[in-house]
Amino acid sequence: MVVRCAVHLARLILWLGVVLPAAGQQAVEISSRNANYTIQVRLHPETKMLEGMEVLEWRNTTRFSTSELWFHLYWNAWRNSRSTWLREDALRTEPRADSLQQRRPEDWGYVQIEAVRVLPGGAFGAAELTQQVRYESPDDANPEDRTVLVVPLPRPVGPGETIRVELVWKSKIPRTFARTGFRGNYFFLAHWFPKLGVFEPDGTWNNHQFHAATEFYADYGLYDVQITVPRGWLVGATGVALGVTENPDGTATHRYQQADVHDFAWTTSPDFREARRRFERSGLPAVDIRLLYQPEHAGQIERHFRAVEAALEHYGLWFGPYPYGHVTVIDPAYESGSGGMEYPTLFTCGTRYWAPFGGGQPEGVTIHEAGHQFWYGLVGNNEFEHAWIDEGLNTFSEERVAEVAYGQWFFVRRFFREFVPVWLRDVRRSRLHGMGLDRYRAAARSDVPATPTYRYHPETASAITYSKTALWLTTLERMLGWETLQRILATFFERYRFRHPKPEDFFRTASEVAGQDLTWFFDQVFYRAAVFDYAVQSVASEPVRTLGYVERNGTLALAGEESAREEGPYETRVVVRRLQDGILPVEVLFVFEDGERIRESWDGRALWKLYTFTRPARLEYVVIDPERKIVLDTHYTNNSRRLQPRPQFVATKWAAKWMVWLQDFLHTLTFLF
Amino acid sequence: MSVWRSFLFGLGRVLKTPSLLCWVYLASLAVALPLAMVVRGGIAAHVGGSLVEQNLRTGLDLDWYGEFAEEASGVAATFGPEVIGHMALVQNLERLLDGKLLAAHRTLLAAGGLYLLFWTFLVGGILDRFAHPGEPHSRARLFGHSGEFFWRMFRLLILSVLFYLAIFRFVANPLHEFVEQATRDVTVERTVLLWTALVYLLTGLLLAGVSMAFDYAKIAVVVERRRSAVLALLRGLGFIARHPGHTCGLYLLLLTAAAVVMFFYGAIAPGSGQSNWATVLVAFVIGQAYVLARILVKLWFLASQAILFQAAANHPDRTAPAAASAPLP
Ligand SMILES: [Zn+2]
Predict the structure, then answer these.
(1) Which chain A positions have a beta carbon within 8 Å of B187's beta carbon?
(2) Is the per-residue pLDDT at A7 higher than 90?
(3) What is the pLDDT of residue A100?
């Protein structure tokens, strides 16, 4: 406890030294701030168009020069069905809720660059580059993809040099794809402006095309954005509002600013309602929470705040403080498709008109997206290549926070076109269930986690990115203890805040903090698509018995008298098996009928292993991995075995319930006649 | 004959003939029990000697269920948390109102088909009993009439299923689709919910109308000894058209009775935690009592509607003392 408090105190002092927390003020520079944007954007709600102008100020922080700037034009992913995003999306067997065929002309989206020019300043003179730009498809050479724009420069940007570039563009807002777009007069605008890629320390541009299963990657910087929308519409955006100017044409311009972030998203609608709350916990910086909610969810305001506060509190205490002093929470419009997504200092959650408390939503999604302020916002890994770092760490953290703050959720299913929730209070969802153990089991071999995420199969990517990572983190928690894992995560957070960590950075930190080389573990769970399944193959426990000849008084004699005696002793033989290729050391617990317990460690390497004991009592049962540390074990039912199986009771119990269900079905059928 | 009297006398006739209830219930058991044994075998085989058995005593272990769902085959694969308590009712109701009754797992569908055949067979004999309560009855007469009417009833069944499918093909699904398209820019869930609820209501009304028409068609087959299924259906429709207030009022009362049974069971339906044989038995008995009550209500529909039909049509066969009075306006 003392140690923990001291750590918090140290963190607080550190934090006070670098950050000015009050809303409206900017944090003291702590990130690289080498990609700074000044943007003016105007929304035309009737035509669903955006008109934008941005000035990017970019400083080359590497040792290399570059004679190009690479930009993401994300919205071109929905220019037509030939884009890489839509081609990948089509690989999903589960059809999109809105089929592309049903899309109307106004439902597609695009971004068109109208002008690109270098602004004079520093070593650069003014230069018009509009005609020189070109499109690239670095990932799949798809000539019809227009999500990567390359701007050749009149002269290279050398190490440490800064260049200012102005881009003018127009874009069509799509009916929502990938959490961005419109529904009615609700607009959610994410990855909406021409956005610079990352010029890596090795002198190459990391600027992937937009892919169906991956998200984003950018450098940190200062965003100063002026958003013009119809007067009276509420705006939510990354950063803090610096003021509103009412324009004579019936519009209003909202100015938002935020430093030390790597993206900027905003939303607007005339229907939003606003609620505010100040989060205050000793040992953590205060955070002003602004909730923009749908009027029909007024009854759920408190639930949203409570979930955000749970995330800020636990993530803050476990990993490190949230330094920005404010966060904007968006309750998205019904069926807008923009729910459940994170952006710096702003995120969307998502609820339903009927959402029973205890069923997990909107609390789960709110904790998750609030948690992304830490894993994604502050620790800015490359989501194209290593999405597991933010999504996996965050799914693990979310489930842990939810369990600590709320306990286990109960089972809910929505009926009647998903409008009506029905729940079973006495059926609880475990943390493993929440992390997606079932999804992982179904997709365990779909991809090697070390593969760049954008190359994962789009259908199963999340099972690896989110579920598998969260599950093996749980294994680490159970192997090393929560205290150790928490220190690993806190150290990783502290070291890579405002930076772009790579997988090896996490693995190195984990080994270092744990005080043991964990390479063998990551080899199994990350560098291979190994599947884990340990099982009890056979169990026998019989009176010790010898047949044939034994040595007696120096001569061989038939072993008649040594024959088995029912009162013991007993010989117990248990064969355990490794059914798959995944190898992790595991414990095996043997419990005998007289209460004796024997715990054995097995390195788990051999395909099978025989355990033999001679004991006064029979074996009662055996369990492999009794604490369920290897949560990646896809089949835990086969991990234990009683000497006397007794499944009849539960089988009868559940079959009896099933029968009533069937009889109800049969009876419902007679409604037909 | 007033609606209330038909309603109450109907219940009286059902209660006076418990053997009919027994026969239908036996049909339900005959279909469900063997399949339940298969499911029991599937669960027992999957659990085996595993300690997960302890978790399944105290509740439903969803982690186990995930494994089971992945490995289960055949009818055992239909086992899931939905079978618990009130959720079972809601799921089946949703199937009915979404037109998915015939889209169930093929074993369930086969079981359902078999049960419908049983029912179609019995319904002739049952209606004969309800229509002629004063006449001597026997098992031979019940099955004799069941056999006599079976093919006519079967043709009606086919017609009814076609109507059911048509309601969804031509009305309910297009309307849901229409609502979805018409509300694609609506940002308020409550609004969409309201429109969707209206479509469900309309679907329910259509289903009720069809069900009512076929009930009177069946009654006409028995009471008026009609041979043609189509003419019987027209007779049913004509009867409703001539007595809309009485037929609909009675139907609404009967529907309320069904709803009361379902709500009551939904409220007391046992959850997942029976951990000894006594509680399992109690849960099973409650479940079977519910099934019996549902069957009773189904028979009640037929009995009351037969009384109304006979009274209105002033059939010479009617023998219930009260039915002699109050001809319909
Ligand atoms: Zn996430």
Answers:
(1) 183-186, 269, 271, 294, 333-336
(2) no
(3) 84
Mean pLDDT in residue range B104-122: 94
- Ligand 1 geometric centre to CA of A391 (Å): 5
Q: Name the DSSP class of B211.
A: H
Is the distance from CB of A83 to CB of A76 less than 8 angstroms? yes
Residues with CB under 5 A from ligand 1 (ion): A 391
Give me the residue from B39, B66, B120 closest to A437, CB to CB. Answer: B66
**Into which CATH architecture does domain A534-642 fall?**
Sandwich (2.60)
* Identical fold, A31-266 and A271-530: no
Q: Radius of gyration (Cα) for chain A, nearest Å?
A: 30
Which residue of A lies nearest to B78 if distances are taken between CA atoms?
Answer: A658
What is the three-class DSSP state of A416?
A: coil
Peptide bond into B244 cis (omega under 30): no
Give the H/E segment covering residue A118.
strand A110-119
Distance of CA A625 to the CA centre of its chain: 27
- C-alpha–C-alpha distance, residues B145 and B138, integer Å: 11
Per-residue model confidence as pLDDT tens digits over A106-129: 999 999 999 999 999 988 999 999
State the nearest Cα–Cα gap between B222 and chain A, in angstroms.
15
The residue type of A334 is Y
Query: How sure is the predictor about A564, in pLDDT bands with cuts at 50, 70 and 90?
Result: low
Distance, CA of B129 to CA of B17 (rounded, Å): 8
Report the distance separating Cα A548 and Cα A19, nearest Å: 83
Residue A649 with chain B: CB contacts under 8 Å: 53, 57, 277, 280
The per-residue pLDDT of chain A, averaged, comes to 93
Rounded to an integer, the average pLDDT of A316-344 is 96
Q: Which of A226, A230, A203, A192 is nearest to A45 (CA)?
A: A230
Q: What are the strands of the beta sheet with A287-293, ordered from one edge?
A: A273-279, A287-293, A326-330, A346-348, A341-343
The phi and psi torsions of B9 (rounded to 5 degrees) equal -65, -35
Q: Give the dihedral of Cα atoms B19, B23, B25, B31; nearest 10 deg.
A: 170
What integer pLDDT is reported at residue B1 of this predicted model? 65
CATH class of this structure's domain A271-530: mainly alpha
Cα gap B40→B77, rounded to integer Å: 11
Taking residues A250-265, report their average pLDDT: 97
The CATH class given to the A31-266 domain equals mainly beta
B-contacting residues in A 381-410 (Cβ below 8 Å)? none
- Answer left, alpha or beta for residue A290, where phi above 0 means left and psi between -120 and 50 means alpha: beta
pLDDT at A318 over 80: yes
DSSP readout, A613-626?
EEESS-EEEEEEST
Q: Model pTM?
A: 0.92
Q: A424 in contact with B at a CB cutoff of 8 Å?
A: yes
Under 8 Å between Cβ of A228 and A41? yes
ipTM of the complex: 0.94
DSSP class per residue in B22-53 = HHHHHHHHHHHHHHHHHHHHHHHHHHTT-THH
* Domain ranges (residues) in chain A: 1-28, 31-266, 271-530, 534-642, 646-673
